[in-house]
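fyi for ur records
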Amino acid sequence: MKLKNVLIVVEDIGKSIAFYKELFGLDVILDNDGNVIMTEGLVLQDKKIWEQFIGREIVAKNNACELYFEEADLECFVKKLENYREPIRYVNPLMEHSWGQKVIRFYDPDGNLIEVGTPM
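which gave:
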């Protein structure tokens, strides 16, 4: 068995595509009208369609999981966040763990938790 993708639910597909393209350099591989596959295995699913599929309410900012990215030049990435056209909602500012890894955590436009850290 092989994990192929990670799916997150979003309200505005276009806004989310722009967010992940501009900040993370991800590109669209396939756009199936409400289901978008991006590079690195990220799938964006329209909230209304997902609610119909699972028959349940979507709970944003539930902090139950996160998307994890690594970036060698984390300070440069933090500047990209600070200059992004929309305000970024931070969970914690740039910090350094006791084991020496620097990380920053924030939400995407739909409340999906993201962590960006220096390579381990």
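Helices lie at 13-24, 47-54, 74-82. thats all i got for now
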